[in-house]
Design a protein that fits this description.
This protein has 360 residues and is of the alpha+beta class. Helix content is 44%, strand content 22%. It starts with a helix and ends with a helix.
């Protein structure tokens, strides 16, 4: 008889342990039952179940109940128990409230294999912050104070001073670039030093250029004689040191008679007379006449040139080289002008705003 009773007890224990092994437990706890407005509390929801089962935790969008907000839902934490046969899943909810009251937190429902399981209900007391009024010492309570300006510090004005200093250079540079691009002039002139050539060499180089271009053969006698006489006028100015560029042909001849022989000046007089007829009377000279006048100009220069001193050192002179501005350069200059104008306006606006904030 005792044998059967012992066997029945063992079977009962085994049956009870099997039921417990297959049971699901849901427990909820809160770390703080009382909080102040705006403080946070944490609800821990624990579910114990068999490892082969799946639990679905409750999902809250914004509020747990009216007046209690859900700030964060942490990822579930899973622990394995009984050699991996059971699991303990923990879910943390961070809550808060901005209204003072006693809140009833209903049981949380967990679905396990389509079966609902509920935890126990919780409570949360939210207190408002009260400022005690010292009625015995009313002088300790002060009303709102006037707005106080911060003390002056140079560090706060470094940017303002920099904008003021840059304002004038930005404006001057913008105006300079605008005028240079408007007049189609280079931004920076390239200047190099070269030896100064004697007047007769400069004149012979120019006459050689006129000879190579053969302007008279293109039906442009006026342009040809204008270039030829201008070259001679410049040579006479540099050689004999009087302003032949502003004098008439007759005045030049009279002035040269004081310095040179009459034979060289006779050929020059004939050249000037032909040039005046072409420029003012629309005279069209013959081809051989044009060639003869070119030779007369060369002979005059050779007969009147100064004798060079072989030991004399050439004197340097500054020659300005003006380059034509390409389309890409013009676009770049335009963009630069726009950027400088924007920088100038930005500095001006910043200065005005800082002055307004300081004196307001």
């Amino acid at each position: 008889m005792r044998k059967y009773i012992f066997l029945f007890i063992c079977l009962g224990i085994a049956f009870t342990g099997r039921i417990y092994a297959q049971s699901v437990t849901v427990d909820a706890s809160i770390d703080s039952l009382q909080i102040l407005i705006g403080e946070q509390a944490h609800i821990k929801l624990e579910v114990s179940l068999d490892a082969n089962k799946r639990a679905i935790f409750p999902v809250f969008k914004d509020t747990l109940v009216r007046g209690v907000e859900v700030l964060d839902v942490a990822k579930p934490d899973t622990q394995w128990l009984n050699d991996g046969k059971r699991t303990l899943i923990t879910q943390m909810y961070t809550i808060t409230s901005f209204d003072s009251a006693l809140y009833y937190l209903p049981p949380m429902e967990v679905i396990v294999d389509n079966q609902p399981y509920r935890s126990k209900a919780l409570a949360l007391m939210v207190y408002s912050v009260k400022v005690p009024l010292d009625s015995l010492h009313p002088e300790s309570m002060f009303g709102p104070k006037t707005v106080m300006k911060p003390p002056f510090a140079w560090e706060d004005w470094y940017a303002f001073i920099a904008c003021v200093l840059l304002l004038a250079p930005f404006l001057l540079l913008t105006i300079y670039l605008f005028k240079r691009i408007r007049d189609n002039k280079p931004i920076i002139r390239k200047v190099k030093l070269e030896p100064k050539l004697p007047p007769h060499q400069v004149a012979m180089q120019e006459i050689e250029r006129i000879k190579q271009e053969k302007v008279w053969q293109k039906g442009l006698p006026k342009e040809y004689y204008t270039e030829l006489t201008d070259t001679l006028r410049l040579y006479i100015k540099e050689r004999f040191h009087f302003n032949a560029l502003e004098m008439t042909s007759g005045e030049i001849i009279e002035k040269l008679l004081e310095h040179n022989d009459k034979e060289a000046i006779a050929d020059l007089r004939e050249l000037f007379q032909t040039a005046d007829l072409v420029k003012f009377a629309k005279h069209n000279p013959m081809m051989n006449e044009n060639d003869a006048n070119l030779l007369n100009a060369i002979d005059f220069i050779n007969e009147t040139k100064e004798i060079e001193d072989a030991n004399a050192k050439p004197q340097p002179t500054e020659i300005t080289i003006v380059e034509k501005r390409s389309l890409r350069t013009k676009v770049g200059l335009g963009i630069g002008i726009v950027l400088l104008a924007v920088a100038f306006i930005g500095c001006l606006v910043y200065i005005c705003r800082e002055l307004y904030n300081y004196f307001a």
